[in-house]
Amino acid sequence: MACFIVPAAEAAVVTIVRRIAESNHDKKYSVTKVNPEAVLEKKTEILHQTRWLTNLLWGGSVLLAFEHVWHGEVQPWFPFLTAMHDPDSTSEMLHEMATNGVGMAALVTAVWIGMVAVNHIRRKKSIQEVQ
């Protein structure tokens, strides 16, 4: 009924954090004993990888929201979710959000972590081949 809200909330939080990080990205900090260019390159890579996560989360949330609209579980007037009309449906909806929504958000995040790990391994391997 409303499982798409949990990944959408995670996507919103990650998007806000990424935007704040991007706005601070170009600021140069005096770093001692560390190569500032390497730090900036690492920050750029992390921002790029968080963009993968936001794209996965937003895309899945939009697709799920469309599916719920298609099945008539979301309506264009308040209270938008049809499950909000009676308390029994509301408790069922909250249970679905706690189980399915959290599970989907965790699975998407786990897939993203796997993507980041594979990318890191491939990068490391390509650097070793060049040397």
Helix content: over 70%
Low-pLDDT stretches are none
User: What radius of gyration results from the CA coordinates?
Assistant: 20 Å
Give the N-terminus to C-terminus distance in angstroms: 54 Å
Question: What is the averaged pLDDT score?
Answer: 86
Largest sheet, strands/sense/barrel: none
Helices and strands: which structural class? mainly alpha
How many domains? The number is 1
Description:
The chain has about 130 residues and is mostly helical. It has one domain. The protein has 3 helices and no strands. α1 (about 5-25) runs antiparallel to α2 (about 35-70), α1 crosses α3 and α2 (about 35-70) packs antiparallel against α3. The radius of gyration is 20 Å and the shape is elongated. The termini are far apart.
Protein topology:
Blueprint: H1 5-25, H2 36-70, H3 87-130
Helix pairs in contact: 1-2, 1-3, 2-3
